[in-house]
Design goal:
Low-confidence stretches: none
Structural class: alpha+beta
Radius of gyration: 15 Å
Largest sheet: 7 strands, antiparallel
CATH superfamily: START domain
CATH architecture: 2-Layer Sandwich
Shape: globular
CATH class: Alpha Beta
Strand content: 35-45%
Number of strands: 7
Order of helices and strands: EHHEEEEEEHH
Length: about 160
């Protein structure tokens, strides 16, 4: 599979954008954050990295993306070892104290769902946090069979996302 193969493919789920609010029922949920530093300069550096797919790359994924900086509609093909993760950016967060994006699964992904990657700045104390939210469920027979192992892998990768920027 190549990045060009993703053009025109539909998302594999209906709950588009749900990582921004309430995670939908019938999925496995992840919501995590980690303090990664202090100050506005640290926030800006981390935000730039997130928007350039830095959480993914820092977690060990090879990333081929249709845009250098995440934007709505950009296709992203992640690879972690032999596993492919075809996705499309479904929304972007561009607020004064929070930046990031979410992408959703396309056909060919082992799971159905969405992941959000962001950083936030707390002006009250200057702390900077990385954030991940996700909902997913198996999309293939082998991901259903290996679901317990996939959950462990998801916890490991989520930790890597949080510390990557």
């Amino acid at each position: 599979m190549k990045l060009a193969d993703l053009a025109g493919l539909p998302l594999t789920y209906a709950e588009r954008g749900s990582t921004a609010d309430h995670l939908p029922a019938r999925y496995h949920h992840v919501r995590a954050d980690k303090r990664i530093g202090q100050g506005r300069a640290r926030f800006e550096q981390a935000a730039d990295a997130v928007m350039r797919y830095g959480m993914l790359r820092g977690a060990g994924l090879r990333v081929d993306a249709g845009t250098e900086v995440a934007e709505v509609g950009a296709d992203v093909l992640g690879r972690l070892g032999p596993f492919l993760a075809p996705c499309r950016v479904v929304y972007v967060i561009d607020e004064e104290n929070r930046r990031g994006f979410a992408y959703g699964s396309l056909p060919g992904h082992a799971v159905i769902g969405e992941e959000m990657f962001a950083v936030r700045y707390d002006p009250a104390d200057g702390a900077v946090y990385s954030e991940v939210a996700a909902f997913s469920r198996p999309a293939t027979w082998w991901s259903r069979l290996g679901s317990p192992a996939l959950r462990v892998a998801q916890r490991i990768v989520t930790h890597r996302y949080l510390t990557a920027v």
